[in-house]
Amino acid sequence: MVDAARAAKMADRIKVIVAKTLERGIRDPRLGFVTITDVRVTGDLQHASVFYTVYGTDEERSDSAAALKSATGLVRREVGKNLTARLTPSIQFIADGIPENAALIDSLLTEAQQRDASVDALKKSAKYAGEEDPYVKPRDLAAEEEAAGFDDDEDDTTQA
């Protein structure tokens, strides 16, 4: 097993090498606007997974995937030339789902915003199911007796 820091450095170096190779070395007309998003190297440094995204339509994505698959040998040769490792790792290109995930998250946020707006509209026209103030208040006995017609003060004065 290799040190994780060494594997991370190697992955960063492979990312730069692959990006430069795609920019300058590959003349395939099928290759579209490809961006290398991440590279992950296995613990034994024998395999590198290169994650990429393609800006464009589904047809351009599939054409770029075919171009990358056909250029895997060229890319591996360039990585081997520019990497200071005893063995050159095998390269595998994997389409990254970042744009699709971002679109999904964006649609979910839009839906949440619309639901919040509908709840706010319902809140403005809402009324209480019972009393407006449902909390029990202490009884005011003097006010209740006065409303009922009881007056203790008059009874006290007539007896004396």
Task: Explain what you see.
- By secondary structure, this protein is of the alpha+beta class.
- Helices cover 55% and strands 15% of the residues.
- The chain has a three-stranded mixed sheet.
- α1 packs across α3 (72-82).
- The N and C termini lie far apart (106 Å).
- The model has no long low-confidence stretch (mean pLDDT 85).
Brief summary:
With 160 residues, the chain is an alpha+beta fold. The protein is built from six helices and three strands; from the N terminus they run αββααβααα.
Beta fraction: 15-25%
Determine the fraction of residues in helical runs and give it as a percent range: 55-70%
Helices and strands, in order, run as: HEEHHEHHH
Overall shape: it is elongated
Spatial strand order of the main sheet: 1-2-3
Biggest sheet descriptor:
3 strands, mixed
Report the C-alpha radius of gyration, rounded: 37 Å
Q: Given the structure, what is the number of helices?
A: 6
The assigned structural class equals alpha+beta
Q: How many β strands by DSSP? A: 3
Mean pLDDT: 85
State the low-pLDDT regions, or none.
none
C-alpha termini separation = 106 Å
